[in-house]
Amino acid sequence: MKLKTLAAASTAALAVLSLLTASGLTLSTSTMDREVTRLSDMVREVRSIMELEVHLLIHERESVRAALTQHPEHARARDAARDKLERWLEDLRAAPVTEEDAGALQEAELEVEHYLAVRADQAHTDGQALSPVESSPVTADEADHAYAALEEVLSTKLAEARVARARVDEVKRRSEAVSIGSASMLLLGLLLALWQASKQIYRPLLAIRTAIDRYGAGSHDARAPNGGLDELRAIAVAFNEMAAALAEQRRKQLGVLASVAHDLRNPLTALKLTVDRLKPDRPLPPEERLRPMFARIGQEVARCDRMLTDLIDIARIEGGELELRYEERDARELAREVVELYRPTADSHELRLSLPDEPAPLRCDPLRIGQVLNNLVANAIKYSPSGGAVQVTVAREGAEIAIAVSDRGVGIAPEDHARLFDRYFRAPSSRQVAAGVGLGLWAAQRIAEAHGGRIDVMSAPGEGSTFTLRLPVTESGYCTRAARLQSS
Ligand code: ADP
């Protein structure tokens, strides 16, 4: 799984859960709100009815008292009670009415209005000195009817209020269930997302970090496990490949060290044997024997020097520090120098040099180009049998100077040609023939490229090889010394 997919899936899942939770809560809140409003309307109506009942009774009491005492104080109290009764009646009329209880409510209102009207008439009559005791039973009846009608409405309203209350309780229970359910789902979703993040990101990252730490501490076999998100897997694979490549490089470097030590031993042994013959406690051999001994010492020291210089150059090229000191030189001169260098040591091979009559001017670092040619000639000698011919040819090919080194040696299989210039590569066909480390051609190709040129190879197994160094010709820098060179 990719990081993008995991993040998108977790975000989408959490968003859906949050949306569900929010809609659930909104729905239950609005239902609750509706039910509570209905309940509070009912409570208001119940209160109005109860107030009506109370003020009906107060009015009745004050009316009777006023009739009995004819006292203006009591008449005022009765009128005040009437005002309140009428106000509460107004309040009840203003309350929203459902279809079911509209009839009962209207009847109760009519009864109360009727009672008030009868009482008002009676008060008027009382004012004309009728006996209050005579009139009381008539109004008591009206009051009873009004009270009974109010009681009926009240009991209906109370029953409705109880149902509404039960509904509110039910909605409350449901919203609690929705809240707890959605909170648990969200928590679960969050835990799931965290678990996935730990499994797919945290633990694989930790494993990669541990592998890197172990590698850094010297465990070169440390490898990162291949798990988690695709991106982390790719990092683990890249780390493992890098670790394997470094291990392989290390193995090859150790091989190079062993090979260099082995190669150095030959000239050193020759030096030691020669020097052993010049013991301090013995008289020196005559001059005619001394001279070849010193010549041999010189040759072996030069060999060691060449090997060490090559090694230092390789290290420089690897570190990107190859410095070129350009000079104008003739390729024929450089080819001749290298052949002359090898001729005395390669008595088992026939070294031939073929040079053109025209100058072959190059702008190059002669030391480095000499090193490249040395390597090609040394390989031609190394990988061809004794008595074989090694041919060095200089030719001008258009805008290039080509210096070819050919031999009739073991040759190289076509499938190995492409890898010849890789570091540490050695063709299987030549491994039995001579020791080597596979760095010379790599360094030679880097030097050729640094001069804007290249080395090409033509070879077939058992038929020999031709390595050709091609460099751009320089028209500006004509070398006067070059004109004196002859082919040989
Ligand atoms: P080394 O000779 O030390 O192995 P080089 O980089 O000079 O390293 O050469 C790389 C490989 O190319 C050699 O090991 C050998 O397999 C092959 N090679 C180079 N020159 C020749 C040649 N003239 N004939 C056959 N094989 C060659």
From TrEMBL:
Protein's UniProt keywords contain Transmembrane helix: yes
Q: Would you say which domain of life the source belongs to?
A: Bacteria
- EC number(s) per entry: 2.7.13.3
Domain HAMP: from-to ranges? 199-251
The subcellular location is: Membrane
Q: Name the InterPro entries for this protein.
A: HAMP_dom, HATPase_C_sf, HATPase_dom, His_kinase_dom, HisK_dim/P_dom, HisK_dim/P_sf, Sensor_HK_Regulatory, Sig_transdc_His_kin-like_C
The name this protein goes by in its record? histidine kinase
Encoding gene, per UniProt annotation: cpxA
